[in-house]
Every structure is written in structure tokens, then in C-alpha cells.
Specification:
With 270 residues, the protein is α/β, with parallel strands linked by helices. Helix content is 40%, strand content 16%. It has helices at 26-37, 52-61, 82-96, 114-126, 140-146, 168-176, 196-205, 209-219, 231-238, 247-254, 266-269; strands spanning 3-5, 11-13, 17-18, 42-44, 70-75, 101-106, 130-136, 156-160, 180-184, 223-224. α1 runs parallel beside α2, α3 crosses α4 and α7 crosses α8. The protein is globular. The structure holds nicotinamide-adenine-dinucleotide. Nicotinamide-adenine-dinucleotide binds at residues 18-20, 44, 107, 136-137, 158, 184-190, 208, 210, 225-228, 233, 236-237, 263.
């Protein structure tokens, strides 16, 4: 599994399993264990997903040592602010029960609160309770507002990213700031499968459409966390390290961009 190096030197596996809408209990537990036993080393959950307990069980039940696994969770919007975020982190730790959390994210830039939430993440990081900290759904203006007041800079920004929402300038901005860009809904929640160019590239490379898009992510240095609970698809989504898209095809996928979201717009949502 390929890693990206975060600004603090921590290695983050470039591919992870997303578990939004994966049901707490057996479903998430089995998906997580299956993914880990089949090459994944990174799991992306959140308090909102209400499946941290099963994620933790899946991690413990897998045959992979804890130190080889990277687990992300996030503070939900209702829990933001300094004290609330610290309490939410404690609850996530209890839910997961896996010794430590690798990456803790501010899930959305909740107006009037995200700076205080960030101060809590800085404390958790300084106290050594989490290996890396970051944000999610922060547009450039949110980062421009946050960064001047921070002591520790976000190491990751997790954003909606797929062929219809490329956000090139935000990608470049994050890169310039040393913030790792990570794609959520990389498969557009299933919406990529009818895009003609991707069908053509799938035939050209002998790879599935999902593999083409996930390869485009990792070749751009973008971490990616496709969701599936289906064993065949979990495996398929991980088989992206044995081929390379040529420069023209990489660019052609970038050019599919329509600025079209499948999830909420951060400026409207919070
Ligand atoms: P996704 O783009 O990963 O799409 C998932 C859907 O695609 C699933 O319903 C699955 O049925 C289908 N699928 C997966 N692999 C396939 C394959 N190989 N062939 C055909 N269909 C396939 O959507 P997502 O779950 O919204 O995003 C991925 C992860 O990102 C989430 O699970 C979550 O961890 C994270 N996320 C984060 C935020 C945030 O605000 N930070 C928001 C949404 C999602």
C-alpha cells in the first residue's frame, strides 16, 4: 500500500475504506476486517456515522497489527467548540477502543466555532493523544481565516472530490500550504459509472471505472476513501497500484469538472 507523508512526518496510506452509511455492528465490523485482511491499512469513520464501535471491533479482529493501521474519525458539528470537542474526542476513543486515533478531523467549518474546535485538536495533538490533526470541508476562505491564528497547522483537508468536482485551485492551495488533500465521495456515490470518457478509459486500460478514478486520485497525490461493503468491490477498489494513466488521460479526467456536488456545499451547510 502506498503512503503519503503528512507535514509532521506521519505516513498515511493513500487508500482507505470509507464507512459512511455502513451499519453499526456486524456489517461495519466485517467490512473493516475484510478490507484490512485484504490489503487496506486505512479506515475513515466519523462520530456522525454512528459506527465507531464496529470499526474498532473490525480493527481488533483483523489479523493486522494496530501499528500498521491508520484510523480517522471526526468531531461532528453539534460537538464543536473547545470543551465539547475534547469531550467528543474522549467518546470517540471509548467507542473505538483501539489505543489511539491516527487522524482527528473537524468535520465541517461550523461558523463561529471552528477556531475553538481547532484549539482543542491542537491540545489533543500536543498531548500526544492523536498522531495527526486536520480539517474537512474547509474551502480556501475558511483556511485563510483559520491559519493565521493556529499554533499547529492542519495536516489534512478532506473534501468532496471526483471527476465532476475537481477543485483544482483548492488542490493547489492545499499543496502550497503543506496540507494533504483527501477525497471523499471519490466515486460520486456511484455517479461516475455512466460517464462516457471513463467507459473509454476503462476499456483502454482493462480496468474498471472505479479503478480508473481511484488511480487518477492517487496519481495526483490525493488520498482517497471509497466506500463499499461488498467484498468483491472492496478488493477491486484496492487494485489500483499495478497500472498508470498517461498524462493526457489524467488531464482529460480533470477536464470533466463541472463544479457539481453530490454532497452539501460547505458555505451553505454550516
Ligand atoms: P463513494 O463515492 O465512495 O461511493 C460509494 C458508493 O459507490 C457505494 O454506495 C457503493 O455501492 C458504490 N461502489 C463502491 N465501489 C464500487 C465499485 N467498485 N463498483 C461499483 N460501485 C461501487 O461515496 P461516499 O461513501 O459518500 O464517500 C466515501 C467516504 O468518504 C465515506 O464512506 C466517508 O468515509 C467519507 N465521507 C466524508 C465526508 C465528509 O464530510 N468528510 C462526506 C461524505 C463521505
Amino acid at each position: 500500500m502506498m503512503n503519503v507523508t503528512l507535514a509532521n512526518g506521519i505516513q498515511m496510506p493513500v487508500l482507505g475504506l470509507g464507512v459512511w452509511k455502513t451499519t453499526e455492528g456486524a456489517e461495519v465490523e466485517e467490512a473493516v476486517s475484510f478490507a484490512l485482511n485484504n490489503g487496506y491499512r486505512h479506515i475513515d469513520t466519523a462520530t456522525l456515522y454512528r459506527n465507531e464501535v464496529g470499526v474498532g471491533a473490525g480493527v481488533r479482529n483483523s489479523s493486522i497489527p494496530r501499528s500498521d493501521i491508520f484510523v480517522t474519525t471526526k468531531v461532528w458539528n453539534d460537538d464543536q467548540g473547545y470543551g465539547n470537542t475534547l469531550r467528543a474526542f474522549d467518546q470517540s476513543q471509548r467507542n473505538l477502543d483501539i489505543d489511539y486515533i491516527d487522524l482527528y478531523l473537524v468535520h465541517w467549518p461550523v461558523k463561529g466555532k471552528y477556531k475553538e474546535s481547532w484549539r482543542a485538536l491542537e491540545r489533543l495533538y500536543t498531548e500526544g493523544r492523536v498522531k495527526a490533526i486536520g480539517v474537512s470541508n474547509f474551502l480556501q476562505h475558511h483556511l485563510d481565516d483559520l491559519l493565521p491564528s493556529v499554533e499547529i497547522r492542519p495536516m489534512v483537508n478532506q473534501l468532496e472530490h471526483h471527476p465532476y468536482l475537481v477543485q483544482s485551485s483548492l488542490q493547489q492551495y492545499c499543496k502550497a500550504q503543506g496540507i494533504q488533500f483527501e477525497a471523499w465521495s471519490p466515486l460520486m456515490q456511484g455517479g461516475i459509472f455512466s460517464i462516457p470518457l471513463l467507459e473509454t478509459l476503462s476499456a483502454k486500460y482493462g480496468k474498471s471505472i472505479a479503478q480508473i478514478v481511484l488511480r487518477w486520485n492517487v496519481q495526483n497525490g490525493i488520498a482517497t476513501i471509497p466506500k463499499s461493503v461488498t467484498p468483491e468491490r472492496i478488493i477491486e477498489n484496492s487494485q489500483i497500484f499495478d497500472f498508470e494513466l498517461d498524462a493526457a488521460d489524467m488531464q482529460a479526467i480533470d477536464q470533466l469538472d463541472k463544479g457539481q456536488r453530490v454532497g452539501p456545499d460547505p458555505d451553505v451547510f454550516c
